[in-house]
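In this section we walk through a basic example: taking a raw amino acid sequence and producing a predicted 3D structure, encoded as discrete structure tokens. The instruction is simple. Fold the sequence below.
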Amino acid sequence: MCGLSRAGWAVLHGDIVQAWWYNPLMCTVLAVYFIALASRLLTGYKLTLSLNKTRQNMALGAGLLALLLNWVYVIIFVG
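The resulting token sequence is shown next.
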């Protein structure tokens, strides 16, 4: 199994910490997504992020770097 599959399996068994160790990026992204979803369901307000073109490019670069580093971490430490 890959890191994401192991993380999903750990979440299904209630072991959130182990899931984060298997795949930290996906666990963080999913946590932020569910917080935003809960906020929208509870308050009715949609969380938005407005960025100019330069900041969009910076965010894209940071996201791609995070994805690369997460991939390296999963390969080295999770196997």
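Looking at the output, two observations stand out. DSSP finds four helices and no strands in the chain. The chain has a mean pLDDT of 90. In the next section we compare this with other chains.
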